[in-house]
Design goal:
Layout: E1 6-8, H1 17-23, E2 28-33, H2 41-52, E3 60-63, E4 65-67, E5 70-71, H3 83-92, H4 94-115, E6 119-120, H5 144-161, E7 166-170, E8 186-187, H6 191-196, H7 199-208, E9 212-215, E10 219-220, H8 232-242, E11 248-250, H9 265-275, E12 280-282, H10 286-295, H11 302-308, H12 324-340
Parallel strand pairs: 1-2, 1-12, 2-3, 3-6, 7-9, 8-10, 9-11
Antiparallel strand pairs: 4-5
Helix pairs in contact: 3-4, 4-5, 4-12, 5-7, 9-10
């Protein structure tokens, strides 16, 4: 059985029969975990083992684990700081900021891989404009060149650990006010303005190395009437054509309010795939997930299957927690967090 184009969530700490049914559907290719799926590291490892044992090739297990407000696993995991804090350090000490970005990314990825997670949806490549509260300090910086430098360091750290990177949210969510989890955001700028600012980090990081890109549920109405994740212009003409990206294109969650612009779940799935998306995220709506799976029963994309192979994590850290590299990284993280006065917070989205 090959991996399908749909990435789903699961209900709780372990798989139930409905989870197993959906995950064994031939059009399923992966799972995204949330805070409700995490009790402690040992339970997480068992859940990942359950998921990986269902099929061959094994399903890709993913998570939004950026750091700061968006870190799904808290108790028992290292507290990764918000990316904006690295941007602040970059302004005064670029070399140290780049070094720590690589170390923290390695730490994040190595820890996730240790427990069975293949992929974290990181780094955020959006512009850190205060207009966008949903992005905010999830972004490295306001300066696209600084974002590119820090993001490339982050990608180096992830890949050193054995995890590929997924940049988000293309072509940029940081310059719009609306939160696409709850509304349909519009970006009224012409293409030239977007290209000169928001596309810069994507172009720079793609030119270095990026295995995946996640699309934004934003309508850039001076460029295309469709939201970017449904837009063949944004995906095929700009991302694959002009930026020469040859990796995996992810939709953002098709259950979000910003995804509703083309109709029901089957229409969202069909439009995303027609536009050029490889993998569709469908979260927090089991009926919607079933509708998407059934609507794609005869779908096949050999190109997508080839791209997906690289997303499986490579865990070479069996003795991770006692290694000198791990202990050194923990020390650097603790010093940085102490300087920030970092307190653990809740998830941005459950």
């Amino acid at each position: 059985m090959t991996l399908g184009p749909v990435m789903l969530d699961v209900a709780g700490y372990e798989l139930d029969e409905e989870d197993r049914r959906r995950l064994c559907h031939p059009q399923t290719g992966g799972v995204i975990l949330f805070s409700r799926n995490y009790r402690d590291p040992q339970q997480l490892a068992q859940l990942c083992q359950q998921i990986h044992g269902l099929r061959e090739p094994r399903l890709i297990v993913s998570v939004d684990h950026e750091g700061g407000r968006v870190q799904r696993f808290r108790e028992g995991f290292q507290a990764i700081p918000a990316m904006g804090s690295l941007g602040e350090l970059y302004d005064s000490d670029p070399a140290q900021a780049l070094q720590l970005a690589e170390v923290f990314a390695w730490m994040m990825s190595a820890e996730l891989l240790h427990y069975g997670i293949d992929l974290s949806f990181a780094p955020v490549l959006d512009i850190g404009d205060p207009v966008s509260s949903v992005i905010g300090d999830r972004a490295f910086h306001r300066d696209p060149q600084a974002i590119a430098h820090l993001a490339n360091a982050w990608v180096r750290g992830m890949r050193k650990a054995g995890m590929e990177a997924v940049g988000k949210h293309f072509p940029g969510h940081g310059s719009v006010e609306g939160d696409s989890h709850h509304v349909m955001p519009f970006d009224r700028r012409p293409f030239d303005a977007i290209e000169a600012l928001d596309l810069v980090p994507f172009r720079r990081v793609i030119n270095t190395h990026l295995a995946g890109v996640m699309m934004a549920h934003v309508i850039y109405d001076q460029v295309d009437a469709l939201a970017a994740g449904y837009s063949r212009y944004w995906i095929e003409t700009v991302l694959r054509g002009q930026l020469e990206f040859d990796g995996v294109v992810f939709s953002d969650d098709l259950s979000m309010s910003g995804a509703e612009s083309v109709g029901g779940y089957s229409e969202r799935a069909q439009q995303s795939l027609a536009a050029g998306c490889d993998i569709l995220l469908v979260c927090n709506n089991p009926d919607g997930a079933d509708e998407v799976l059934e609507s794609l029963r005869d779908y096949s994309s050999p190109a997508t299957q080839l791209r997906m192979v690289r997303l499986h994590g490579q865990n070479s850290h069996a003795q991770l927690f006692g290694s000198n590299e791990w202990l050194s990284a923990c020390d650097k993280l603790a010093q940085f967090n102490q300087r920030l006065g970092l307190a653990e917070g809740g998830d941005l989205f459950e």
